[in-house]
Structures are given as structure tokens and as C-alpha cells.
Design brief:
This protein has helices spanning 3-12, 29-39, 52-61, 65-72, 77-82, 96-105, 138-144, 173-178, 204-211, 218-227, 236-258, 280-293, 295-307, and strands at residues 16-20, 46-50, 91-93, 117-124, 130-133, 150-152, 155-157, 160-163, 183-187, 263-265, 322-324. It is of the alpha/beta class and 326 residues long. The protein has a single domain (16-197, 244-306), classed as Cytosolic phospholipase A2 catalytic domain. Strands 1, 2, 4, 5, 7, 8, 9, 10 and 11 form a nine-stranded mixed beta sheet that branches. A hairpin with a 2-residue loop joins β7 (155-157) and β8 (160-163). The two termini are 29 Å apart.
Length: 326
């Protein structure tokens, strides 16, 4: 941080923002990053999230991160598989069972009533525009951002069908700034994933259990077809996941070049498959490691702000559900 900017931070009492990126199961690293920041006395006031970043950010903004962290660390591959409601309508997984189960366990406050500002990023399927959701119940706002093309079915939010926010803004730095953040800490989950293995082999336990049954349903047979993979022939799921990784990596580079954050944290989780949600302990540990490793640099930017932080009026006028061109 330059001396000139440090003086400016001291004068303004800068607001700290988190830009939590998309990345499916790798997103559990966001939990570790947030816990690590809290541990060193840095409490972000603005949370912007895309896809799984929108989900973790929503839980944090609603004050439920501790319980959520404990729960995800108990998940097994069988648990994850049981929460996936497979379909061929708009994607492989509806997501209703997963998010329905989640909503039963967590509160769903209105974003306007939170102590922190929160915004999720989604993609309008009809227009392709970037949509920021910063008002209304927080869980539907997060869900609207989580619809990976070909994997999770689109989500209807209001009168519009929403796709994954990672299609237009995988690491939402610009929404964090628009919501009032002076210093943005970005967590980029996609930086090292092009060419990485993304097979759903880790879900083998659930698949093998289903495949041994003689009364397999159509959906079980279809699931085996989509998820089966070998060294010689990638599965349909592998192809879709690799395509998403490549696309999000390229978009992230472009967006962050035009609007760079003050700090970028990159969890090293290249061996994580798209649906490795049962590996939360590893991802959270990596988030902790990142903060510890970069603590000096983080404090150089945010330490001053943490000491002289200014109150943030969460009820002030902020961007409503709006559309922006990608």
C-alpha cells in the first residue's frame, strides 16, 4: 500500500468489503477466509457474493457462519448425493432439495435488516445482463446466484429466470465497491483450475450404492450415464465442469484487470471436483492458511481501517435488484 493511500485510508476510516467468488465445492474455502479475517480482528462490512460465494456470504451476513461451518464439516459424500434431486429439466440437479434442506436449518432475514451490506450477483437468462440483488429475503437472493449451466436448473426470481452469477462476474469486486467498500478483499476460486481434473469420482460411494440395485429408476440410470468417466472418455459432467472452469477463469481475468481489488486471495484447491461438498474441512483449512500466510499484507491494507472503522448505515439507499451489462 502506498504512503499516500495509507493516509487516505486513515482519513476516511475505510469500509472493508469482501468479494466472494464462484467455484462450487471450492467455495467452502470462503468460510475459512472469513473465520481467519475475524480471528485477526478484521470484520468486513460489505459482502458481495457470486454463486457459492453468495451462499456463504449470505450465511455470514446473517450471523450464522459458525453453525453453518459446523454443519458442512459433517457432510459425507453419501449425504451430498442424497441432497441432489436429479432432473433433465434445465440442468442435472434441481437444487430444491438441497436449498430446501438448507432453509429449514437457517434463518432467512431481509437483507435491509442486516448489520452488514450484502449483494448477490446473478445472470438474467433472457437478456444476459448482470443482476445485483440487495433487498428482500437473503436466502432466495443467494439461491438466484447458484445455477451453474447444465448442472443446476435456472432459478425463477420474481418474474425472471436467473442463471449462475459466475457467467458475468465470477469475483464480484465491482458490486462490493458499489455497495460502499473502500478496500476490497477478493477470493478467487478459479485461478488455477484450467486443465484440472474435475471428475465427480468422489461421489462414487453414492453412485455405487445405487448401481448395485436391480430396481434402478430411470433417473439413477441417467445419473450413471452423465457421471460415469474414464481416463479415455470424459463424462458429460466432466465436459460441462471443465467448460465452466475455463469460461470463469477467462471472465475473471478480464473483469479483475478492469477493476482490481486491493487484495486477492487464491485458495489452492485444484484437486477439488465440482461437487466435492463433503471435503469442507480441507477447503476451510486452506482458507485459514491463506489468511495466516498473508496476514501482514492484509493488515497493511485493512489493519488501519479495522482500528478506525466508521459505522456503515445499512439502511441507506443501495442498488436494488438491477440489471447491468456484463
Amino acid at each position: 500500500m502506498s504512503e499516500q493511500h495509507e493516509v487516505l485510508v486513515k482519513q476516511k476510516g475505510a469500509v472493508i468489503g469482501l468479494a466472494l467468488g464462484s467455484g462450487s465445492a471450492r467455495g467452502w474455502a470462503h468460510i475459512g477466509v472469513i473465520e481467519g479475517l475475524e480471528k485477526i480482528g478484521i470484520h468486513p462490512q460489505v459482502i458481495a457474493g457470486t454463486s457459492v460465494g453468495a451462499l456463504v456470504g449470505a450465511v455470514y451476513a446473517a450471523g450464522q457462519l459458525g453453525e453453518f461451518s459446523e454443519w458442512v464439516q459433517t457432510l459425507t459424500s453419501r449425504d451430498v448425493f442424497s441432497l441432489l434431486d436429479f432432473t433433465l429439466s434445465g440442468g442435472m440437479v434441481k437444487g430444491q432439495r438441497l436449498f430446501g434442506f438448507f432453509e429449514e436449518k437457517h434463518k432467512n432475514p431481509n437483507i435491509e435488516d442486516l448489520d452488514r451490506r450484502y449483494v448477490s450477483v446473478a445472470t438474467d437468462m433472457k437478456t444476459g445482463r448482470e443482476v445485483w440483488i440487495s433487498k428482500g429475503p437473503i436466502l432466495p437472493a443467494a439461491r438466484a446466484s447458484c445455477a451453474i449451466p447444465g448442472v443446476f436448473s435456472p432459478v425463477k426470481y420474481g418474474d425472471r429466470w436467473m442463471l449462475d452469477g459466475g457467467l458475468v462476474n465470477p469475483v464480484p469486486v465491482s458490486p462490493a465497491r458499489a455497495m460502499g467498500a473502500d478496500i476490497v478483499i477478493a477470493v478467487n476460486l478459479n485461478a488455477q483450475l484450467v486443465g484440472a481434473h474435475v471428475s465427480i469420482a468422489s461421489q462414487k460411494e453414492g453412485l455405487e450404492e445405487a448401481s448395485t440395485r436391480s430396481d434402478k429408476t430411470f433417473w439413477q440410470r441417467a445419473t450413471e450415464y452423465f457421471l460415469s468417466s474414464s481416463d479415455e472418455h470424459p463424462s458429460v459432467f466432466d465436459v460441462m465442469a471443465s467448460s465452466v472452469n475455463i469460461m470463469q477463469d477467462r471472465i475473471t481475468r478480464s473483469r479483475m484487470a478492469g477493476d482490481p481489488p486491493e487484495l486477492t486471495l487464491v485458495p489452492m484447491l485444484e484437486d477439488f471436483a465440482l461437487m466435492d461438498f463433503h471435503r469442507a474441512k480441507e477447503a476451510i483449512k486452506e482458507g485459514h492458511r491463506l489468511v495466516e500466510e498473508n496476514a501482514a499484507q492484509i493488515r497493511a491494507w485493512a489493519g488501519v481501517a479495522a482500528a478506525e472503522i466508521k459505522p456503515l448505515d445499512t439502511r441507506a439507499e443501495s442498488p436494488l435488484v438491477g440489471a447491468r451489462k456484463a
